[in-house]
């Protein structure tokens, strides 16, 4: 018979495959959504509002996702969130309008936003100490490998079928792959999710998990959160306008824009393994600071580019933004109390999400004044976040004390 550890290992492998399959389908088209909205008739400001809605959903879904992960179990919660996102893909396919995109994102955001605390909890449950950094490296690679491979293929679909037709073809592929992923998740999690025992109608429901409040967050986690908010503002201002800058201003074809995304993700993936190995042995702060510096440099590199080759170098800089991401995520779970990790991670990302929710709309407003202003403002915010992290985060984090 297979032991429980073997079942968990088999479940982790099947989950990894499912994550890749799901991500590949979505990444065929998600980078082109802002341009799709433009074709459907949305203004630049409305595109910014869409980006803001995505950020608001990231914030609003994060803490409830953590509560559900703690109460239902991280595996069962992930199944529910995956089904919600699949339903969102169907909305995108059948409701071909600006309104349909705005409604569909309410469901599509579930896997990423509601499911994030559950994903963190799974890694925290299975790994401890420096191994968590490696675990988050694997998670990051699995999330970004589809971004390396899918966008150029999505760009080719758009070039062959036109933007609306290519997007619809991408939605169909996403639905098929998402259904396959749901089947994989069911198989992976069935052994680890025992049937619920029968309960008398007179038996009280289990108490809801106690809320985690900001004041209970570890001081180092609160300092990291401030820096992270500034850095995500830096990312959020130009994010939905990157495709518009490339296609409309620099006249880059959709497939070549997809190649830029592949360059970014290729650099990111190559940087993960050595950075994570070093971060597991050394202090995490230098890697977090390096990540923040590359976040700051990316919008500057993009706005100063005047050719595809220069944009390629800029997107390589964008890939280096991920060099300290496993270390940053490991810090978050290291400083989260055992038994409330899902809620702690959910609270962290909820605060960050609400703090940066207006970034895309602000970026749209700046864009209407002058497109380059969006990028320069983003770089200024990134520098502020980097300096705060450099000054406030301790050189040596007392990880063992935090997890005791």
Summarize the structure.
The chain has 404 residues and is mostly helical.
Overview of this structure, please?
With 404 residues, this protein is mainly alpha-helical. The protein has a single domain (11-191, 218-399), classed as MFS general substrate transporter like domains (Growth Hormone, Chain: A, Up-down Bundle). The chain contains 16 helices and no strands. It has helices spanning 4-27, 33-39, 44-72, 74-94, 98-126, 131-189, 219-239, 242-249, 254-281, 285-303, 308-319, 325-334, 341-355, 359-369, 371-392, 399-403. The radius of gyration is 21 Å and the shape is globular. The relative contact order is 0.17.
Distance between the termini: 34 Å
Proportion in helices: over 70%
Strand content: under 5%
Poorly predicted runs are 1-9, 192-207, 398-404
Order of helices and strands: HHHHHHHHHHHHHHHH
What top-tier CATH class fits best? Answer: Mainly Alpha
Rounded to an integer, what's the Rg over CA atoms? 21 Å
How many separate domains make up the residues?
1
């Amino acid at each position: 018979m297979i032991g429980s550890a073997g079942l968990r290992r088999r479940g982790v492998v099947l989950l990894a495959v499912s994550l890749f399959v799901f991500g590949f389908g979505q990444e065929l088209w998600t980078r082109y959504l802002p341009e799709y909205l433009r074709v459907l008739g949305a203004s630049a400001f409305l595109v910014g509002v869409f980006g803001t809605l995505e950020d608001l959903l990231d914030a609003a879904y994060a803490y409830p996702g953590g509560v559900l992960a703690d109460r239902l179990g991280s595996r069962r919660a992930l199944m529910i969130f995956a089904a919600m996102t699949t339903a969102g893909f169907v909305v995108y396919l059948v409701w071909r309008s600006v309104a349909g995109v705005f409604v569909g994102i309410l469901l599509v955001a579930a896997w990423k936003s509601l499911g994030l605390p559950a994903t963190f909890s799974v890694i925290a449950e299975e790994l401890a100490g420096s191994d968590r950094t490696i675990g988050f490296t694997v998670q990051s690679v699995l999330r970004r490998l589809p971004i390396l491979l899918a966008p150029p293929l999505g760009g080719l679909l758009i070039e062959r079928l036109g933007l609306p037709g290519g997007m619809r073809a991408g939605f169909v592929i996403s639905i098929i792959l998402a259904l396959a992923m749901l089947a994989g998740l069911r198989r992976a999690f069935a052994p680890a999710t025992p049937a619920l025992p029968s309960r008398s109608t007179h038996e009280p429901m289990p108490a809801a998990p106690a809320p985690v409040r900001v004041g209970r967050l570890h001081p180092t986690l609160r300092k990291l959160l401030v820096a992270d908010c500034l850095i995500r503002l830096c990312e959020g201002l130009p994010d939905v306008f990157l495709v518009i800058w490339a296609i409309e201003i620099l006249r880059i074809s959709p497939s070549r824009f997809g190649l830029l995304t592949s360059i970014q993700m290729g650099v990111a993936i190559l940087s993960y393994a050595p950075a994570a190995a070093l971060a597991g042995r050394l202090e995490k702060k230098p890697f977090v600071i390096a990540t923040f510096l590359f976040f700051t440099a990316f919008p500057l590199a993009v706005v100063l580019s005047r050719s595809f080759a220069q944009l390629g170098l800029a997107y390589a800089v964008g890939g280096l933004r991920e060099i300290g991401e496993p270390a940053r995520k490991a810090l978050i779970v290291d400083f989260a109390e055992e038994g409330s990790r899902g809620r702690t991670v959910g609270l962290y990302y909820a605060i960050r999400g609400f703090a940066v929710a207006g970034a895309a709309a602000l970026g749209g407003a700046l864009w209407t004044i002058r497109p380059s202003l969006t990028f320069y403002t983003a770089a200024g915010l990134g520098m502020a976040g980097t300096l705060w992290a450099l000054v406030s985060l301790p050189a040596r984090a007392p990880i063992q004390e935090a997890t005791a």
